[in-house]
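sry for the spam today, last one i promise. C-alpha cells for design, 205 residues
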C-alpha cells in the first residue's frame, strides 16, 4: 500500500471516528438503498451469512439480522463500531481494513454500500481479490460507488474532517469485476442530490 493511499485511509478513518454520531443522523434513512438491498437478499439462501463491509454505525447489518440472516459488520473505524454496538447490538462487529481482511469465510454475500468509494484505484483490485476469497463459489457481492473521474476529498463535515472519495466509470468497474471472476447480475445507476451512483450486484463464478 502506497504512502498516499495509507494517508487517505487514515485521514478518512479519523474522520469517521470523529463524526460517527453525525453520520448516523444523516444516513439512518435507508430508503435510497432499499431496492438494492431487496435485490441482493432475494438472491441469497435462507439464513445466509452476510459480511457488511464498511458497515458504519451498523444499520444495514442490524436489518439483515432482523430479516433472519447471519450478518457480521466490518468497519475500519472504531468510533463507528462502538456506535453500532450501542445503537444496534445483537450482530457481530469486527474492526478490520477491507484491504486485509483478518479472516477467511465462505460467506454467501458481501454487502459494501458506499464503502468501496474510499479506496484508491491501486487498491480496488486487491479488495476484489479479498472478497473473492471470502465468498463461497456462487456467492454475491453488492456494492455502490460514485460515478465520475479522478478522486477528491469530501469536506461536508468540515475542513478538519475530510474523507477520500475515488470516482469511477461503469467501464472501469465492470472490467475489474470480470478480471476477478465476478459476473454482473444487476446494474443500476441512480441519483441522490448531486451524486450519481453506480450500483452492482455480481456473482462470484
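last one done:
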Amino acid at each position: 500500500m502506497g504512502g498516499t493511499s495509507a494517508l487517505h485511509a487514515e485521514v478518512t478513518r479519523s474522520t469517521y471516528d470523529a463524526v460517527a454520531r453525525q453520520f448516523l443522523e444523516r444516513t439512518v434513512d435507508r430508503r435510497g438503498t432499499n431496492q438494492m438491498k431487496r435485490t441482493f437478499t432475494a438472491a441469497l439462501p435462507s439464513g445466509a451469512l452476510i459480511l457488511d463491509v464498511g458497515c458504519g454505525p451498523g444499520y444495514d447489518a442490524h436489518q439483515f439480522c432482523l430479516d433472519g440472516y447471519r450478518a457480521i459488520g466490518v468497519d475500519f473505524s472504531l468510533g463507528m463500531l462502538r456506535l453500532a454496538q450501542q445503537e444496534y447490538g445483537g450482530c457481530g462487529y469486527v474492526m478490520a481494513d477491507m484491504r486485509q481482511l483478518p479472516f477467511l469465510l465462505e460467506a454467501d454475500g458481501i454487502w459494501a454500500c458506499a464503502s468501496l468509494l474510499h479506496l484508491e484505484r491501486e487498491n480496488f483490485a486487491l479488495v476484489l481479490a479479498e472478497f473473492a476469497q471470502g465468498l463461497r463459489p456462487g456467492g454475491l457481492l453488492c456494492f455502490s460507488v460514485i460515478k465520475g473521474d479522478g478522486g477528491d476529498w469530501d469536506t461536508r463535515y468540515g475542513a478538519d474532517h475530510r474523507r477520500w472519495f475515488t470516482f469511477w466509470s461503469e467501464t472501469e468497474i465492470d472490467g475489474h469485476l470480470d478480471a476477478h471472476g465476478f459476473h454482473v447480475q444487476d446494474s443500476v445507476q441512480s441519483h441522490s442530490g448531486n451524486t450519481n451512483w453506480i450500483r452492482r450486484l455480481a456473482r462470484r463464478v
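DSSP finds six helices and nine strands in the chain. ok im logging off now
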